């Protein structure tokens, strides 16, 4: 199990990582990062918040990265490997996809690196009757590593289709300027993927390093702002789950400790909020 301190969510960030209230189903939060500032600590805390209560919610994690099976029993978390098919010269063995109620059998990796394969692997795990958190970690890796590159509008359409079956969706994308050079087809496509995701997002959380370079006691900066999917007309739209007051746009410094614990604070306040 992950140590309690490792998954503790700093109070200033909790409103943005809570599941959206029942009045706002199918919401999307976007996390962007740059090389050298991994957003894994933020994704971990979003999952921990979704799994914090002992009820019948089913959290499905669909990640282009490593599984987090040590956090919770597999009955509450599912993992789809989207990387093996990208870089393996041989196709993984075929295996039947389990139903959302499966508790013991690991899910097979994708056999082909296509959006159709990703969609077919994820949709059976999502149930409109459950408050499912869907996590797509590093979704931009798939279109970037296929030839020809998957168009941005197809990636956006996939997000819409998956969101419609999940209560909430969290997507992580790279936002390095070198990846979004408009003079190249790949760069223009990547920039469009990020822009289209931000247009759908309720919150956009940007993780980056310090402008002045590295520091021993500061890991980087996290900036939070409303995305194009924010519903300004929703009554009580700034209230999170369980009536907790929602956050506002803001920026904090953060530091990830050796034990995985995270502290965040505003500039000038000094480190201290964990």
What does this structure look like?
- Mean pLDDT is 78; it is low at 1-5, 60-67, 95-104 and 235-245.
- By secondary structure, this protein is α/β, with parallel strands linked by helices.
- The chain contains 8 helices and 8 strands; from the N terminus they run ααβαβααβααβαββββ.
- It has helices at residues 4-7, 14-17, 40-50, 84-87, 115-122, 141-144, 152-163, 185-200; strands at residues 27-33, 60-63, 133-137, 168-174, 203-208, 220-226, 250-256, 262-265.
- The protein starts with a helix and ends in a 9-residue tail after the last strand.
- Strands 2-3-4-1-5-6-7-8 form an 8-stranded mixed beta sheet, sandwiched between helices.
- Helix 7 (152-163) packs parallel to helix 8 (185-200).
- Strand 7 and strand 8 (262-265) form a beta hairpin.
């Amino acid at each position: 199990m992950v140590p309690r301190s490792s998954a503790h969510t700093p109070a200033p960030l909790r409103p943005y990582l809570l599941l959206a209230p029942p009045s706002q189903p199918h919401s999307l939060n976007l996390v962007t990062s740059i090389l050298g500032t991994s957003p894994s600590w933020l994704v971990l805390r979003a999952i921990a918040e979704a799994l914090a209560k002992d009820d019948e919610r089913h959290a499905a994690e669909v990640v282009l990265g490593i599984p987090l099976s040590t956090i919770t029993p597999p009955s509450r978390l599912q993992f789809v490997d989207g990387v093996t098919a990208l870089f393996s010269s041989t196709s993984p063995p075929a295996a039947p996809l389990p139903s959302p109620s499966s508790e013991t059998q690991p899910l097979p990796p994708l056999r082909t690196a296509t959006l159709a394969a990703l969609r077919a692997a994820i949709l059976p795990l999502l149930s409109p009757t459950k408050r499912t958190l869907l996590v797509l970690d590093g979704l931009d890796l798939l279109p970037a590593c296929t030839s020809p590159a998957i168009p941005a509008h197809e990636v956006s359409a996939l997000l819409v289709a998956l969101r419609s079956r999940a209560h909430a969706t969290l997507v992580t994308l790279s936002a390095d300027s070198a990846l979004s050079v408009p003079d190249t087809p790949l760069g223009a496509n990547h920039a469009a993927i990020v822009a289209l995701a931000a247009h759908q997002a309720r919150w956009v959380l940007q993780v980056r390093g310090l402008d002045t370079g590295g520091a021993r006691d500061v890991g980087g900066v996290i900036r939070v702002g409303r995305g194009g999917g924010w519903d300004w007309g929703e009554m009580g739209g700034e209230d999170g789950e369980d009536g907790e007051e929602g956050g506002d746009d803001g920026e904090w410094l953060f530091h990830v400790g050796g034990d995985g614990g995270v502290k965040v604070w505003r500039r000038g306040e000094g480190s201290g909020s964990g």
